[in-house]
Every structure is written in C-alpha cells, then in structure tokens.
Amino acid sequence: MSTKTLQNISEDSISYRDGRYSGLLRPFLYLTDLSLIIAGASYFFDDSFDLLTYGIFIGVCWIIVSMQFGFYQIHRNTNFTTLLLRLLKQSIFFAFIVFAFFGYYYELNKDSLYTFKYIGAVMGLIATVKVSIFFLLKNYRKVLGGNLRHVAILGANKDTEQLKNFFEKRPDYGYRTQELFDVKKSFNLNQFTDWVLENNIDEIFCSVQELSNEQLLELTDFADNNLRTLKFLPDTTTVLSKQLHYEYYGTTPIIALREIPLDDPINKVAKRAFDIVFSMFVIIGVLSWLTPLIAIIIKLESKGSVFFKQARNGLDYKEFTCYKFRSMVPNKTAHLHQVTRGDHRITKIGKFLRKTSIDELPQFFNVLLGDMSVVGPRPHMVSHTHMYAERIDKFMVRHFVKPGITGLAQVSGYRGEVETEEDIIGRVRNDIFYIENWSTVMDLKIIFKTIANVFMGEEKAY
C-alpha cells in the first residue's frame, strides 16, 4: 500500500461528511406520522377510547412494519413509483394493525365504518406529507441547487457516459459530475486522488472494467482512508459478490462498496437514546458516589488532577477531549507513549483502576455529551491515530462512526498495548466488521462480554 494512497491525514484532507444524510428528516417523519395517527384516533373515536394503549400498540407496530418495508428508506435515487408502492404496503398493514387492535379490545360492529374513515384519513394525510417532502427535496436540488453531491466518474465507455448523461438530465437527484476521466489516456491514480481532495469530491463512480485490480484496490484504500464514498459500475458479464449493495440510477446499475447501518438516522436515534439512558444510569448510579472515593485515594497517593484529559479522534476524524481517572503520575510523555507492561508511570491505585477498567468510567460523560458511544471502535490518542493512519490499511474507516468505551475488538482480545502489527490490524478488522454489521443486539452482547471480562480478568488489562 502506497503512502500516496493514504495521503497526509489532516483536517484539510478529511472532508467532513455534512449534507450526506438528512439526519433529522426521517425522525421528523416518524414523529409526524405517529402524531397524525394519534391525533386522528382522538378525533374519530369517543372519549371512552383508550388512546394511551392504542398509541403504544400502534406506535410499536408502525415502527416495526415501516422498518420491514423500508417505508422511510427514501433516497435521492428512489423513484416515485417505489414511493407509491411503499405507501400502499404500509396502508394495507396499517389497516390490519388497527383492526387487530379493535378486534381484541372492542366489538367490531357499526363502528367499522368509522374505522375505515379513520384509516383513510390518516393514510391520506401521511401520503400527502410524504409526497410533498419527496417533491420539495427534488425541487430543492433541481431549482435551488441544494443538498448536492459532487462526483467524479472513472472510465470512458457507454455505461459511464450513460450515467453522466443521466445526472445531467436529472438535476433533481442532486449529483453534479465534476469530471469524467478516460483512464486509458495518460491516467495517473495518485494525481486523481489529489484532485479528489482538492475539489472536495463526495462520491467516486468507477467502471470496474476500466481499471486493473491493483488500481481498484488502491482506489478502495483511498476512499476508506479519506472518508469518500466509492461506488462501482459493474461489468455485467461477471459474477459479483452478493454482499455488495446494488442501486440503480435510471437504468444504470451501480454497486456501493459499503453500507453502514448507523448512517440510517433511525438507527442513530436508537443508538443515541440507548447511550443517553445507559450513561445516565452509570453516572447517577455509580459515578455519583464512586468518584469522591476514587478522588480521595488518587490525591492521597500522588499530586495532580483526579481526571486525566487527552485529545482523541472521533466521528469524522474530529478531535474531542477524552476523560479518564488518572492512573499515572503526571508526566510529559502521557500524550505520546502508550502504557506498556510494568510501566513505571502507573501508580498503585492506577494498577487497580486499569485492571478493573474503572479508570474508563468517566468516559460515560463523553457518551452523554455525544463525543462517544457506549460501544464502538476505541479511540486512539491523536499521535497514534496519525501514525496508524499512514501504516495500517483501512484504519480511517473506524471514524465513520462514534468511538466507544468498549468495542468488538476489545472483547475479542485486541485491547490495551499494541505490541505487534497484528494487534492493530486485528483491531481494525474487528472494528470494520462492527461498523458494517452493527445492531442493538450486537451492542448488548459486547456490553455483557465486557462486564464478564472485568470480573474474569484480562491478560492485557494493565
């Protein structure tokens, strides 16, 4: 892997991924739709109707059904027919859910007509809101030029020309082609990656039949290490991995390199809600009484602050201040050199704090502040992040999500000191697997395993 592929990792070379996802749109639509459902029930049914029970039942069922059908998975390349089909599916199952509720709690007789009117009115309003936003966003991109994605296309052939023409004819998609490169005519990949960074290109569409395997690998490394979106125009005569994500722009098939579950705003909201509740539980239930005790013991043994603060890299490579209980005597190398086995800088109480991972507990304040998550890739000190970004392939992928207090790599044996190259490679491999396969169930498993490891003890907890 060439160092040129990685570029010099800096704030200038890492483009912040704003504008990629309308982070508040889906939560807003969820709240709007559920509000219309509850308000409609309040209007159509009498005072004896149990609105609270109905709201909880319908709310849970609505979210489950909508996630199953991808009701809120409307992207810039989603066509209107798909939107209408999803509305129809959601309406049918909403009707089943409503009648299931009434069938269980009430007798379905003369009120059935009212129920049909209620379903029709609510779904009509929801459809109006959804279709209105759909066309408003399209016109916002087309007329006002907002919510744009700047793209580069690699390869000059029929498919890439077709894609370029499609983007030009459909400005409502919000893609603006900055350049189409003919890779057969004096094409230099290093010059291209420099150009991508200089021109703030958001997405790269690459024709796989135009580049060699080595060039594709280098391009993939560049996209991962510089937080760019890479999509492929496939050679339709070959068999492709079923794990790659297919999309269509008009009639042109596109393959997305990676889908990240936590890019979905609803998943973000779910994870953030869990983080807030869990961190508040730890802060109020544990840190409220444990912090004064730890502070007294730390102060009695050595001079210095109770908390150790260190700059680390988080989501989208942004720096934040990470908090820990101080486990070492104050020293000038704390921000440069990682703790090693038998490190003379560690205090007596520090050994206990690190062995039991109690020194990490103040990071729940980082979670509450939104800098970290309970579970995610562990953040490294800034100096180490720069070093590993230049040495370790795909290290920067870890910054697609918030860092965590614990993570899959840590419960898989890759915690503590990085003694060999395999340690950091294994950590990155586990972190990428977590990013691509995240689920709430996975988070819970990692948390339970972390707690178990605290009581069982870990060899590298020093």
What features would you highlight for this structure?
462 residues; disordered N terminus; two-stranded antiparallel sheet; Rossmann fold; 3 domains; 6-stranded mixed β-sheet
Indicate the percent of residues in helices.
40-55%
Number of H/I helices: 15
Q: What value does the Rg take, in angstroms?
A: 26 Å
What structural class do the secondary elements suggest?
A: alpha/beta
- What is the tally of beta strands? 10
Biggest sheet features: 6 strands, mixed
Number of domains: 3
Q: How much strand content do the residues show?
A: 5-15%
The coarse overall form would be flat
- Gap from first CA to last CA: 33 Å
Strand order of the largest sheet: 2-1-3-4-6-5
What is the average of the pLDDT values?
83
Outline the fold blueprint.
Elements (H helix, E strand, L loop, with lengths): L2 H4 L18 H20 L6 H19 L10 H26 L6 H31 L6 E6 L3 H12 L5 E7 L7 H10 L4 E5 L5 H13 L3 E5 L11 E5 L2 E5 L8 H37 L5 E7 L5 E7 L22 H8 L7 H7 L3 E3 L6 H10 L12 E3 L1 H4 L9 H17 L2 H17 L6
Parallel strand pairs: 1-2, 1-3, 3-4, 9-10
Antiparallel strand pairs: 4-6, 5-6, 7-8
Helix pairs in contact: 2-3, 2-5, 3-4, 4-5, 9-11
What does this structure look like?
This protein has helices spanning 3-6, 25-44, 51-69, 80-105, 112-142, 158-169, 189-198, 213-225, 265-301, 348-355, 363-369, 382-391, 408-411, 421-437, 440-456; strands at 149-154, 175-181, 203-207, 229-233, 245-249, 252-256, 307-313, 319-325, 373-375, 404-406. With 462 residues, the chain is an alpha/beta fold. The protein folds into 3 domains: 3-16 and 147-259, AF0625-like (Rossmann fold, 3-Layer(aba) Sandwich); 25-142, no CATH class; 265-456, no CATH class. The protein has a 6-stranded mixed β-sheet with strand order 2-1-3-4-6-5. A two-stranded antiparallel ribbon has the order 7-8. Helix 4 packs antiparallel against helix 5 and helix 9 (265-301) runs antiparallel to helix 11.
